[in-house]
Amino acid sequence: QVQLVESGGGSAQPGGSLRLSCAASGTIFRINAMGWYRQAPGKQRELVATITSFNSSNYADSVKGRFTISRDNAATVRLQMNSLKPEDTAVYYCQLSGPDVYWGQGTQVTVSS
Questions:
Q1: 72: helix, coil or strand?
Q2: How confident is the model over 29-58, as pLDDT tens digits?
Q3: Distances in Å between the alpha carbon of 55 and those of 35, 51, 52, 70, 86?
């Protein structure tokens, strides 16, 4: 069984920064990519950023230049969020894709003054 443990959510003011972390554990045969998605109230879950096992990253247009995804090792991924905006407020979910897709429980990020 694969588990994804997220940490680092919380509150920030507009223009501030937060950093999310996600650590995968369990029996993982292969990791193709890890990433972050978010879901705001009343909206569909959307991609924020992903990074492949070859360290190729992809970002949503709305976060390009502000967010940076990185990997500490094969099973740990971080999301550095700078210049936060109120529209970044959402529950952020970690995802691992390999032979199967796994999701974390989600961590709340709130950006307000």
A1: strand
A2: 888 999 999 999 999 999 999 999 999 999
A3: 11, 6, 5, 8, 29
